Amino acid sequence: MFTAHYESLTDKCFFYITLRKLVGLHISLLFLFFNHNKNYIHFYVCGYPLSIFFIVVNEFCERFSYYGMRAVLVLYFKYFLQWDEDLATSIYHTFVALCYLTPILGAIVADSWLGKFKTIVYLSIVYTIGQVAMAVSAVHDITDSNRDGTPDNMTFHVALSMVGLFLIALGTGGIKPCVAAFGGDQFSEHQDKQRRTFFSVFYLCINGGSLLSTIITPILRGQECGIYSQQKCYSLAFGVPAALMVVALVVFIVGSGMYYKAEPEGNIMLDVCKCIGFAINNRYRHRSNQYPRRQHWMDWAEEKYDKLLIAQIKMVLKVLFLYIPLPMFWTLFDQKGSRWTLQATTMNGYFGKLVIQPDQMQIFNPILILTLVPIMDSVIYPLIKKCGFNFTPLKRMTVGMFLAAMAFVCAALVQVEIDKTLPVFPSASQSQLKLLNMGSSAVTVNLPGNESLTLNAAQVCRLIHNTIRFVNGMNMPVNVTTSAVDLGLIEPFYYSTYSTIKNGETKFSLLSGSQSCEYIKDFGFGGSYTFFIPSTFVFGPDCQDSITVVEDIEPNSVHMALQIPQYFFITAGEVMFSVTGLEFSYSQAPSNMKAVLQAGWLFTVAIGNFIVLIVAEIAKLPNKWAEYILFASLLVLVCIIFSTMAYFYTYIDPSEIEDQFSKKVDEDEDDKDKREKAEIKMVRRDSAESYDDSYKQSNM
């Protein structure tokens, strides 16, 4: 059964067809015909355009791709590219900063030239290429010519990863302002309820993709893979997000025929910049005292631009002025993906039988967001209001900044506990030595400037810190292997190369001719061991007790659970600062200036990340806890400045101001019409009088 009706909307014609199947499913098809013979098809399911399902799936896959790659990025820098923590932190935050700068470029391109659909498609292709480049850069076998598990040409991997990160930053930032707006465009004017539901589901997909990827990609990174040698599988951790980005692109393109694609109508940010530029230039040209002063410097744009636009820009500049201290909050907030992840690598991740990887600790952020947002809106804020306290948006933001500072105080306290368990490494001007007695009797060692040392048989004097290795003290070669690592054949009175063993129970197989031994060791997080096979070693079922184990570096003993308070404070601060900040900005901005404030907000995030790399490269504090205290102190100082600025801020209603200008414009137009009508009457009267005079003259 088909039912159809037509309705006219400006110069467009909509044709609705409802198809009822026997199963009772109602699917509505919407055909839109443009004036230039362009058309698209809308399928409706349960009152929602089918096209938005493609957009929602696209957003989920894209957010999984981005946050999954970003979760393991700083560890990739440190352990694969072998950068120090400061360089890894600097490059990480440079990448994040670029991700928040490029949305401005994407919005301008979409609104002024390509339109949202083409911008999303083209930049998603760039995005996908970047993710694939990151996955390829993490394959160590490409340049591992000697097959020892370490890339021989690190320059290739660094260059390819940097190109990949640049393309990812361009892609993810460029499509960020387009996808949500493009989804909103799919709804007609009478579908406000469906549009609100769409945005709720849309942002749920963002948090869902972030949460799942932060859980999954660290697990993939922890696996061991390789063609010739087994190493941490960063290529898989980057490869899965790359595959999800391919899925996101394909799904979005498949729905192409169902989308409503609005033509680009120009970007308001360009108009704002041009107006501000003209006002500054005009003010500079009239800087002489002979020109009268104007109430506001933006008033110097009145010669060229409409007064309503100037008034709207004044309102936006008033909010942007409050944005000046905000980057410091993001300086602290985004370090949960860099400094805090590196801090977790020195901690114990055993939660009973559950093992948490260092980069998985970030999952507490999206979990706490989903928990705290409804609690804040339904419990905390109403309770504060009932107590008679006027908890304005700017006051909430101030409290949010203070909570973020408290999070870094917690991080500093955790770091102090970690430092107590870390070994003392030699400085740049010092050296350390390890002495091993492979004989069957005690040995006395005399070192100049040091006391005599007596090493008993099969004993190690620990003066240096190493990763896992075996030392063969017998007069026969021994082959040592595990399921994941082959330490190879160890010659008599020699040692194996350093190897990494993941946490958990590991079984070693020791073989020498027809003799064998099974040795089992349970490893924690971050330990370094030397296994000494003495000259008196005997193969057999009791060989387990014959091997001497020396802990060069004790396994991590400070539990990762101690990081939960700092994640709680930083997330609570985010909810009060970020969510409230966007709400405040939108309430104080004119209706056509939302995009300008969104660009300004993202710009503060970018600046905040640049501050991190500046401090990381310039401060060079010897202790990490001191750096955390420095950041906390800076944010407290900025918090005081912001609270002072907020105290003098006057809340406005942009709609009322715009209505006043509109009313004034209408009155001016009415006066103009009256003057024109009066002039027309005068012209008619003058023409009539002149006609009478000429008529009289002709009669005479």
Automatic annotation (TrEMBL):
Ranges annotated as spanning the membrane: 13-34, 40-57, 64-81, 87-108, 120-142, 154-175, 196-216, 236-260, 315-333, 363-384, 396-416, 595-616, 628-649
Topological relation to the membrane, as annotated: Multi-pass membrane protein
Keyword presence, DNA damage: no
InterPro entries: MFS_trans_sf, POT_fam, PTR2_symporter_CS
Statement: the UniProt record of this protein carries the keyword Membrane: yes
SUPFAM superfamilies xref list: MFS general substrate transporter (SSF103473)
Keywords per UniProt: Membrane, Peptide transport, Protein transport, Symport, Transmembrane, Transmembrane helix, Transport
UniProt cross-references to PANTHER family, sorted A to Z: OLIGOPEPTIDE TRANSPORTER-RELATED
GO BP: any one term: protein transport
Localization per record: Membrane
Protein family according to the UniProt entry: Belongs to the major facilitator superfamily. Proton-dependent oligopeptide transporter (POT/PTR) (TC 2.A.17) family.
Name of the molecule in the record: Solute carrier family 15 member 1-like
Database matches in Pfam families: PTR2
Gene Ontology MF terms in the entry: symporter activity
This protein's encoding gene: SLC15A1
Native organism taxonomy: Eukaryota, Metazoa, Chordata, Craniata, Vertebrata
Cellular-component GO terms for this entry: membrane
